[in-house]
Amino acid sequence: MSTVFEAADRLPGLIGWAAARGITPVGAPFLKYDVIDMAGVLRVRVGIPSTEVQGEGEVVAGVLPAGRYVTVVHTGPPASLTGANRDLLEWAAAEGLTFDVTPTDAGDAWGARLEVFLTDPRVEPDIERWQTELAFLLAD
After folding, report:
1. Which domain holds residue 74?
2. How far is CA 90 from CA 50, 97, 139, in A?
3. Where residue 82 sits, what CATH number does that domain have?
4. pTM
């Protein structure tokens, strides 16, 4: 799971890279989990929502598919998101909701499983007050 923190650490660089090329974020930065195999594989993308792409470099468009999402906002340190994820998954199962996820040999491939960072640590230094939105794409 150390890969998650490495990906999150790339957010400031990504935002700076985009700003230097005139790309203005239209929402909060996020991590998008593409493949999860808790025994060994974790493929994560770092992103910011934007209405346009300018400049050169590795820019991936369309990583946030349209559709219905289950979301919840968690307040507290990022390390406590594991419990929030578990609670959201248990609630969705009790409600009979199914997610856009496909088991593969590499792990579970998700249509969209996001952690959206709503709090800027430069503005709110108290980690106990940081807010993170979890958003999972539902199956059709």
Report:
1. 2-49+66-137
2. 32, 10, 16
3. 3.20.80.10
4. 0.78
